[in-house]
Design goal:
This protein is mostly helical. It has one domain. The chain contains 11 helices and no strands. This is Sugar phosphate transporter domain-containing protein. It holds the Pfam family TPT. It is found in: Membrane.
Length: about 325
C-alpha cells in the first residue's frame, strides 16, 4: 500500500515538473511562431482553468466553498498582473533570462514582509540572496539578447507576483479556504477583469494574426497545460513536505533553463553561464537555510508540549 502511495506521489511530481517546463516552452512557441496576443492567451488560460475546476467538482476531486466575491477582487487583480506580466516577460526575454529573473520573487517577498508587515527574515536568509541578486545583475549585463522592455515587464512581474503570493496566504487564513477554492473564484473574475484591457490593447483590428488549425491547437494545448500546472501544484503543496516541493522547484528551474538553450537556441555567453551558476548557488542555499530554520521552529513549538506531557506523567506517578 505504501509503495503504491509513493508511486502515485512520484507520478504527480513528475507530471508537475513536466507540465511546468512544458508551459514555458509552449507559451514561448506560441509567441514566437504565431504572434498570439499575450492578454488574450492569459484570459483563455483563466477560462480553461475555471472549466477544469468545474469538471473536477463534478467528479468529486474538488469541493468549492462560498466566498465573498467583492473581497476577491484585489486578489484577482494581482492574479491578472502576475500571470500577464510573467507571460510578457517570457515573450520579450530569452527563456534563460526569464527564469533567472523570476528568482528575484523570493527576496522581493522578504523585503515586502519586512517593510510593510514588520516580519523581517533572519540574516542568514538575507545573506543567501546576495549571490542571487549579483547573478541576476551579471546575467542581464551579459545577455546577448538583452531587452529593456522585457526587463521592465520582468521587474513589474516580480513585484506583482510577490504581492499576490503574500495575499494568497492572507486570504486563505482569513477566509479559511485552500488555494484551489480561491482559484475557483480568481479564475473567472480575472478573465472578466482582462476584457477591458484586451479590448483596448488587443482589438481584433490591430492584431495581424492568421489562426491556422495548428495555432488553435497550440493555444488549446497551452491552456490545458496551464490547468494541469495549477492542479498539480495544489496537490503537491497539500500532500508532500516542504523539502519535496523545494526540490521539485529546483528541478523545474534547471530543466526550463536547459529547454531554452537546447530547443530555442537562445545564445549564451560564458559570463552568463557563471551568472546562472551563481543564481543557482543562492537558490539552493536559501532552500537549505529555510528548511533548517523551519525544522528548528517546529521543534521549538513541540518542546513545551512534550515537557508538559512529561510533567503530567511525573505528577500522576
Amino acid at each position: 500500500m505504501a509503495r503504491r502511495s509513493d508511486c502515485f506521489i512520484g507520478t504527480i511530481l513528475c507530471l508537475n515538473i513536466l507540465v511546468s517546463v512544458a508551459i514555458v516552452g509552449v507559451n514561448k512557441y506560441v509567441y514566437t511562431h504565431y504572434g498570439f496576443p499575450n492578454l488574450t492567451l492569459t484570459m483563455i488560460h483563466f477560462v480553461v482553468t475555471f472549466l477544469g475546476l468545474l469538471i473536477c467538482r463534478l467528479f468529486g476531486i474538488f469541493r468549492p466553498k462560498n466566498l465573498p466575491v467583492l473581497r476577491m477582487l484585489p486578489l484577482s487583480l494581482t492574479f491578472c498582473g502576475f500571470v500577464a506580466l510573467t507571460n510578457l516577460s517570457l515573450q520579450f526575454n530569452t527563456v534563460g533570462t526569464y527564469q533567472v529573473l523570476k528568482t528575484l520573487t523570493t527576496p522581493c517577498i522578504m523585503t515586502i514582509n519586512a517593510v510593510a508587515y514588520g516580519k523581517p527574515s533572519s540574516w542568514r536568509l538575507r545573506l543567501t540572496f546576495l549571490p542571487v541578486v549579483v547573478g541576476v545583475a551579471l546575467n542581464s549585463h551579459y545577455d546577448l539578447k538583452f531587452s529593456p522592455i522585457g526587463m521592465a515587464f520582468a521587474a513589474a512581474g516580480v513585484l506583482v507576483t510577490s504581492l499576490y503570493q503574500i495575499w494568497v496566504g492572507t486570504f486563505q487564513s482569513n477566509l479559511q479556504c485552500d488555494s484551489a477554492q480561491l482559484l475557483f473564484y480568481q479564475a473567472p473574475l480575472s478573465a472578466l477583469l482582462l476584457l477591458p484591457p484586451i479590448a483596448y490593447f488587443e482589438p481584433p483590428s490591430s492584431v495581424s494574426l492568421t489562426l491556422s488549425s495548428q495555432a488553435v491547437g497550440m493555444v488549446g494545448l497551452s491552456a490545458g497545460i496551464a490547468f494541469l500546472v495549477n492542479l498539480s501544484i495544489y496537490w503537491i503543496i497539500g500532500n508532500t513536505s516542504a523539502l519535496t516541493y523545494n526540490m521539485a522547484g529546483h528541478l523545474k528551474f534547471c530543466s526550463a533553463l536547459t529547454l531554452g538553450y537546447l530547443i530555442f537556441n537562445d545564445p549564451i555567453s560564458l559570463e552568463q553561464v557563471m551568472a546562472i551558476l551563481l543564481v543557482c548557488l543562492g537558490v539552493f542555499a536559501y532552500s537549505w537555510v529555510k528548511l533548517r530554520e523551519d525544522i528548528v521552529a517546529k521543534a521549538a513549538t513541540q518542546l513545551p508540549t512534550t515537557a508538559l506531557g512529561q510533567q503530567s506523567v511525573k505528577s500522576a506517578a
